[in-house]
Amino acid sequence: MTETLARLKLLLRRLLARRGAALGLGFLLLVALAAAFATVLPFDPLAQSVAASLLPPSAENWFGTDELGRDILARVIYGARTSLLTAVGAVVIAALIGVPIGLAAGFYGDWRDSLLMRCIDVLLALPNILFAMALIAVLGRSQGAALIAVGIAGIPGFARIARAQVMALRQLDFVTAVRGFGGSPGYIMFRTILPNALSPLVVQAIVLASIAILLEAALAFLGVGVPPPTPSWGEMLRTGKSYLYEAPTYAVLPGIVLTLTILSLDTIGRALTAILDRDETDASGETIGGRR
Amino acid sequence: MTKLSRRQFGMAGLALAGVSLAGALPALAQQLKGGKLRVAVLSELANYDPQQLSTVNFHVIKNLYDSLIEYTPEGKPEPSLATEWTIAPDKKSVTLKLRSGVTFHSGTPFKADSVLATLQKGADPKRGKNVFATMSIVKDWSAPDDATVTINFKAPVPERQILDLLQFLLPIDPKGIDTVETVPAGTGPYTLVNRAVGQSLTLKANPKYWREKQPIVQDLVFTVFSEDASASAALESGAVDIVYNGSSRSAVRLKNAGFQVFAGPGPLVQVFRINSTRGPFRNKAFRQAFNHLMDRASILRVGYAGLGKVVALPWAPASPAYDESYNATYAYDLEKAKKLIAASGLSADEIKNWKLLVNGSDESSVAISQIVQGSLQKIGIPVELDMRQGAEYVTALLGGDFAATFGAVGNVQKFPSRVATNSIYRTSGNPVLKDPHPHPDYVAAIARVDAASGGAAEVKAAYDNLNKVMVDEAFGIPTNSYDVGLIVASDKIGGITLDIDNLFVARTIGFK
């Protein structure tokens, strides 16, 4: 536990040493805190005041108001909840299903590998957005449905990375040693190989989180995301585009927040990849994710 | 014998038009120049059959075909292909005198046989399409000679209903009646040149057209735009001369930018449709609360950029049953709504046990549904929106698979019983309320309107009764009228004619 904490601390230190990643992390932290403490902020995302609709940004309404006179900043903050919840949920679903599939396929090889990977190939062949829309058509339009749809769409990524890691690690000495000591396949996969394959999976989780946020926004933009009046960034973009002449900030400001969130996640993902790929060591010789 | 001739109605219609719409009607036709008129439309037409009238065909029909009679924007009948129409004293028949010297685009002379063929098609349940329901009052027809047609009715029919039928009939060339979906077969001011599906439709002036000095422009090109904003941009850049059937919001913006905007007299009325066979909506007091739960002014402003009128009844101002006093009586009032809900005796759980179906493809519907949701929230009734897209929504709407939803109704400026052509207002075979109709008072009120063929007092009493029953039964809560077929034109365009159904009429349009 102490070792894991030390690794995380080192990882964070190296991330913060990169300006882009530090900025991204700071922005994400701000969005996450606003989303987490939205209820204690003096904003109501649902309060309508049609008489005050489509107002430009002002001291009272920092982002202006939408067509129903609702505060756009409040809806952006509450919309962050929708986006972040979808991202976290999708990553959890994709990881919980995709990683074991990849581990089993890579560990056993033979026909089990072929069978599992062909199933993953089928899933991979489906365009994410189309698959998500089909699933929402079956499950109905809700945040849960969007989350599951995006999560399932993320399974192939985790499965393929986990499989590749297992195939690279399974013949190495430390795995052979555990096998020699009588370790069960489950023990070897989850307790021996998985901890040593975490780094690329963490990067994949961040990449999927950004894809999930974007996909959720795309689904909402296409009109099949979270149903109104629940705030959603994609829904704001969808509605705001109709008012581009009257209230350009309506679509632009939520769009900027969405873009910065995706940019932050991608920057962090790229930085992590660079850090972990090089398996950088500092002067003390500490390593972040290398095999032990 | 009631004889309604060109002299009687044409003069009255012209006088009214001169007062109220001097700038809009083709009074300036003589000063207008011809040329090529470029029109942006936002829908691809379905086909050329004038009996399959829908908004997607609105830009084409009156340019390829002529009606037997026309209405002025005020609803006064005037001659077209029928020069005279004589309604029998017992109101069980109407005799038409047909215009001479008219030919179809194929060169076939326009005679009684084409009217008979058109009536035959309209009365056919498979081929009659939108006209079929209107033909339900017709018993049979005959043609004593080539220039005369007599239509007999099953029972005495109110005068206005007869006129609506004549206005709805657009004679089709008998030689082309079987192929009319793919090849236009009318007498209209323009003939088809070319159609690029999904892109454009090109028409040219009919050299043998019977109206003097019409059409004014020789070439008429419709370009199909998929986005309202693109069509507006095309108008602003000068790529097109007119945008037809764009959104109210764009029309308001373009008007402020100096473009001309014309709204016809045939709007739609938005109606909060209630399925009174489900859940708490079986309770009349609960339904009546919705008369006061509609923030009509906000709905009109947000959904339709303020273009239209708030209405508590499903009539346009041109309708003979229109009664403005209901707007004040059934205004937005949450206290009254709360009292009615309390009087319903329903429990707190019962009153929130439903969802509001929303057409997710229609931004206006999404916005106005949220306004109702907000009003309900204010009086402690949290309801969810059941968002459905496209065909899924239409299936639920027409199949009655909903508790409540917004849906527009048409034919709101014509004979009042025509409202019963809309699914929620049907008196039999109602796909939402089913048979037997759960509101027999409403069915009886429609029947009374249909039977009111006597004096003005009888007719007015029938309309008043229908209005009273509609708000009392409260299975349809109208909120506002709004414009369909809006015309936004550059300032070099003149001679716009406003059609009673808001169809696009190009024959009087020219360049200043």
CATH architecture of chain A: Orthogonal Bundle
Largest sheet of chain A: none
- Number of domains as seen in the coordinates of chain A: 1
Give me the CATH superfamily of chain A. Answer: MetI-like
Transmembrane segments (chain A): 21-43, 84-108, 120-139, 145-162, 201-227, 247-268
InterPro entries (chain A): BP-dependent_transpt_permease, MetI-like, MetI-like_sf, OppC_N
Subcellular location (chain A): Cell membrane
Domain ABC transmembrane type-1 (chain A): 80-269
What does this structure look like?
The complex is a heterodimer of chains A (292) and B (512). Chain A has 292 residues and is mainly α. Chain A is 70% helix and 0% strand. Chain A has a single domain, classed as MetI-like fold, CATH 1.10.3720. In chain A, α7 (155-169) runs antiparallel to α10 (198-221), α10 (198-221) packs parallel to α11 (233-240) and α11 runs antiparallel to α12 (248-278). Chain A is elongated and about 75 Å long. Chain B has a domain at 268-482: Dipeptide-binding Protein, Domain 3 (Dipeptide-binding Protein, domain 3, Roll). Chain B contains 16 helices and 22 strands. Chain B has helices at residues 6-20, 61-64, 112-123, 129-134, 159-168, 228-237, 248-256, 284-293, 296-304, 325-329, 334-344, 348-351, 363-378, 390-399, 440-451, 456-473, and strands spanning 2-5, 36-41, 69-71, 77-79, 82-87, 93-98, 138-145, 148-153, 190-196, 200-205, 219-224, 242-244, 260-262, 268-274, 308-310, 355-359, 384-388, 404-409, 476-482, 487-489, 493-494, 510-511. In chain B, α8 packs antiparallel against α11 and α15 runs antiparallel to α16. The longest helix of chain B has 18 residues, at 456-473. Chain B is globular and about 70 Å long. The two termini of chain B are 45 Å apart. Chain A binds chain B through residues 46, 48, 50, 53, 67-68, 137, 141, 223-224, 227-229, 239, 242-246, and chain B through 229, 249, 253, 295, 298, 301-302, 360-361, 363, 366-367, 370-371, 373-374, 377, 384-389, 392.
